[in-house]
């Protein structure tokens, strides 16, 4: 059991594309990660500072913070950003990790005040989150393996990109594809671009075939 996290690569500034290659999924430590949404600069800074805070705790205490402790720590950092959030620089991440105490992957979402809410199955954040959640609601199953979970995550991103101007889909011309990370008992891993591309091609190929009446 574990968690799969996927993020598109597009950042926008108003109605313009600011970047097509931004990273939105960050490793926090060997058993957890953060997916960012909101103001890109403050969000990336928070994700990196969170990683540093966890490393510092481990060095000082000689042990890792529990997953609950990590989730609470991130909530505190979001709360400290509240004044900036009220001025339009909100950071609303997703935190996920493998809980060694219970042997399962866990997922947490937050509001701009730092309020923490655990989701049992799936979640999405950002401008395209509603469309992504709608897709996840239809596709997600509790008994999914890695391959099915990867396809489910990518289908939800493709659906979001189709409806939301702030979400970027797979870009075959530039060779830019969603970032996908896995977190399990064995650690924090990354799904190779070649595999992500192959699954995206399969999804879009099937949709094209259906659209053409095939």
Summarize the structure in short.
The chain is an alpha+beta fold and 214 residues long. It has helices spanning 40-61, 67-80, 82-86, 129-139, 146-163, 193-211; strands spanning 2-7, 11-13, 16-19, 25-29, 32-35, 94-99, 104-110, 116-119, 179-184, 187-190. The chain has a single domain (2-208), classed as Glutamine Phosphoribosylpyrophosphate, subunit 1, domain 1.
What does this structure look like?
This protein has 214 residues and is α+β, with helices and mostly antiparallel strands. It has one domain: Aminohydrolase, N-terminal nucleophile (Ntn) domain (Glutamine Phosphoribosylpyrophosphate, subunit 1, domain 1), CATH 3.60.20. It contains 6 helices and 10 strands, in the order E-E-E-E-E-H-H-H-E-E-E-H-H-E-E-H. It has helices spanning 40-61, 67-80, 82-86, 129-139, 146-163, 193-211, and strands spanning 2-7, 11-13, 16-19, 25-29, 32-35, 94-99, 104-110, 116-119, 179-184, 187-190. The strands form 3 sheets. It has a 5-stranded antiparallel β-sheet. A 3-stranded antiparallel β-sheet has the order 1-9-10, covered by helices on one side. A two-stranded antiparallel ribbon has the order 2-3. Helix 4 (129-139) runs antiparallel to helix 5 and helix 5 (146-163) packs across helix 6 (193-211). The termini are far apart.
């Amino acid at each position: 059991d574990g968690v799969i996290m996927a993020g598109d690569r597009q950042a926008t500034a108003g109605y313009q594309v600011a970047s097509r290659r931004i990273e939105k999924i960050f490793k926090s430590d060997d058993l957890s990660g953060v997916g960012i949404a909101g103001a890109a600069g403050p969000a990336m800074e928070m994700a990196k500072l969170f990683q540093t805070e966890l490393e510092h705790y481990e060095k000082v205490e000689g042990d890792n913070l529990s997953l609950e402790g990590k989730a609470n720590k991130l909530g505190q950092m979001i709360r400290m950003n509240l004044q900036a959030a009220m001025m339009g620089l909100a950071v609303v991440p997703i935190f996920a990790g493998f809980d060694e105490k219970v042997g399962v992957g866990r997922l947490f979402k937050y509001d701009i005040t730092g309020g923490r809410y655990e989701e049992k199955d799936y979640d999405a954040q950002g401008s395209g989150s509603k469309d992504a959640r709608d897709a996840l609601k239809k596709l997600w199953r509790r008994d999914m393996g890695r391959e099915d979970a990867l396809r489910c995550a990518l289908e939800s991103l493709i659906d979001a990109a189709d409806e939301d101007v702030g979400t970027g889909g797979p870009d075959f011309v530039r060779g830019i594809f969603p970032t996908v990370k896995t977190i399990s008992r064995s650690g924090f891993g990354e799904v190779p671009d070649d595999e992500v591309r192959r699954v995206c091609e399969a999804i879009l190929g099937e949709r094209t075939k259906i659209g053409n009446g095939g």
